[in-house]
Amino acid sequence: MAFDIDMIKKVYANVVERVDAAREITGKPLTLAEKILYSHLWDGKPTKAFTRGKDYVDFAPDRIALQDATAQMALLQFMQAGKSKVAVPTTTHCDHLIQAKNGASSDLQSALNTSNEVFNFLESVSNKYGLGFWKPGAGIIHQVVLENYAFPGGMMIGTDSHTVNAGGLGMVAIGVGGADAVDVMAGMAWELKFPKLIGVKLTGKLSGWTAPKDVILKVADILTVKGGTGAIVEYFGEGATGMSCTGKGTICNMGAEIGATTSTFGYDDSMERYLRATDRNDVADAANKVKDYLTGDAEVYENPEQYFDQVIEINLSELSPLLNGPFTPDLSTKAGADMTKAANDNDWPLKVEWGLIGSCTNSSYEDLSRAASIAQQAIDKNLKTKAEFGINPGSEKVRYTADRDGILGVFEKLDATIFTNACGPCIGQWARYSDPANAPKNSIIHSFNRNFAKRADGNPNTHAFVASPEMVAAVAIAGRLDFNPVTDKLINENGEEVMLDEPTGWELPPKGFEVKDDGYLAPEEDGSHVIIAVKEDSERLQLLEPFEPIGNDITGAKLLIKAFGKCTTDHISMAGPWLRFRGHLDNISNNMLIGAVNAFGKKTNFVKNQLTGEFGGVPDTARAYKAAGVKSIVVGDHNYGEGSSREHAAMEPRHLGVVAVLVKSFARIHETNLKKQGMLGLTFANEADYDLIQEDDTFNFLDLNEFAPNKPLTIEVVHADGSKDIIMANHTYNENQIEWYNEGSALNLIKKENA
Ligand code: F3S
């Protein structure tokens, strides 16, 4: 059994007691999101009400999911914690490192050839420490989670933004950085700012050509890519209960595209049907017993304006099929005449070259069956498909069942390429061109979630439009972006005018799901004998060494770089080609701060080595200081480290000998990541002191031996001419975080406590 029914029953036992307590404390009825949050407090039963958008709260998630790209550093760190097993149920999924080129069998084999070292590492670490392991080809993390692990009322975190997909099965599921996942795997709490709440009331019913995808495309249109920031989006109303569980998953999945913390739906019959169809009768039975606790209180949904921070209402009966894009998922255009105009006005190519169906967003049995009902019509009505088809099923369970039921066969008759059950074209792993940077301008349509430039095929000139699977099928058959299947005719091979009928499909497979090998490997009960093999000369993996404590004596530290203006985690640790080295701290450290603009000279990756007077790249200069036994300091501007929760942005400077990052202000997650790595994240008490910092400065910390909560630190800055300034630096370290610093890292402290 892949899931843990005892754990779920425990959650449901807590939910009743804790939700009742939360209702009393807050003195009001509760939304579903609040119920899940209050029933997962680290400290147990709620004793106080939290202020949304303000209070930082410790939570105890029920599950963790890791994908192969982010799992590498997360697991390398976890290995440092000195634990024999993960503290909460965790799974690893191999889906991002598989290229889409010629089709599943040869593509999967070449992924095994190129990344086997990484897959083997993930498999053996999973086996040793009690994580479930899903092999390459088993499926895409979020589809596999929905089929096997998601459960109504649960809380999970995952090292991938689209972890939010599990909201379709009534969870609060949130994408996090590796460092957060490691904390929870090691038995620590997980901190989150108590989110704001956006309510989306769905009235009416989807029909004809509209699909759940159109709901989220519409929400993205209304809220834009930033509108959900810091909030949980909760869907309710007759329109919500009227759609399938996997359709709800699609809507929650793309909550990431509006920046939402996560999205969720209350438990209903569609979820029960899905749980039973995916072999989880015991979860459905347990959920039914606490049904009322797994959805928002009736008063909340009757008067949503009183209980949500923002309310949106969408009438599904009036919704029409949308195409969002290009280059941003929140730019909505209605199919047909609106698209003709928008494409002409903006010079978007109307000819569509590819229609791609699948990804974690839209690869359910229902999605594939509805798209296939359109594809079948091309065959029956003797239409020649104008664009090429590519399909990437979400899981082996869906693929096997869809193949058994002839669904994939329909696409194959249209010469579709069936890619591996993996991310493939959704994450730029689509080998469409030999030279993508110089590839021609073109349009594609897909049922994925993201459509930023280069996202699918690396070609900056590919205009990607996001739509429902059935619309992707129709548009790909017509080969025109502005095709409106409701009104437009097509000419078939006999020269006759034909129209496409509305899509039909199955919410769940009529003959049930079936699979031969789902690709799951359970860990051994006792994995203590498992050896984790990492080759000495590996380019991609490197076992971590515990960081040595920096100590209380920081004198003679040299300025490494004074970052000017915006310095996001991408400036600190770039993505792109560097992703290859995510599991190798020393190699990936060669990208440290290479995107940051140096305040002196305003160039990137060009700083002065104070020991030699020469100029060079940031990583090289840091390495030179480290080799000479000289500590270094990074100075930065406002909101330093904004962007992602990528832990590499904190680990790299720590690895290359940076002892403190002193900035005007931090993005909070990055600040916490610096603390976790046992280094100093400080802010100027007086922002204007940033201007005092000069290129040849040396730093002496005068009172670090008195490092204590709420007590600013005093730093002497010695300039090249011998003059000095005394500056004060604030910090937000609490007692425990000071212990992290004293021990060299949070993981060192955990290890010590476990010893
Ligand atoms: Fe993979 Fe794309 Fe989903 S990269 S996890 S299919 S968003």
From TrEMBL:
Similarity field: Belongs to the aconitase/IPM isomerase family.
Catalytic activity, EC: 4.2.1.3
InterPro entries (alphabetical): Acnase/IPM_dHydase_lsu_aba_1/3, Acoase/IPM_deHydtase_lsu_aba, Aconitase/3IPM_dehydase_swvl, Aconitase/IPM_isomerase, Aconitase_4Fe-4S_BS, Aconitase_4Fe-4S_dom, Aconitase_dom2, Aconitase_mito-like
Domain named Aconitase/3-isopropylmalate dehydratase large subunit alpha/beta/alpha: residues: 35-479
Keyword Transcription: no
Annotated SUPFAM superfamilies: Aconitase iron-sulfur domain, LeuD/IlvD-like
PROSITE patterns: ACONITASE_1
Methyltransferase recorded as keyword: no
One Pfam family named in its UniProt record: Aconitase_C
One GO MF term: aconitate hydratase activity
Chain ranges of the Aconitase A/isopropylmalate dehydratase small subunit swivel domain: 559-687
Organism: Polaribacter batillariae
Cofactor(s) listed in the protein's UniProt record: [4Fe-4S] cluster
Substrates-to-products reaction catalysed: citrate = D-threo-isocitrate
Range of residues in the leader sequence: none
Protein name, as recorded: Aconitate hydratase A
NCBIfam families: aconitase_mito, PRK07229.1
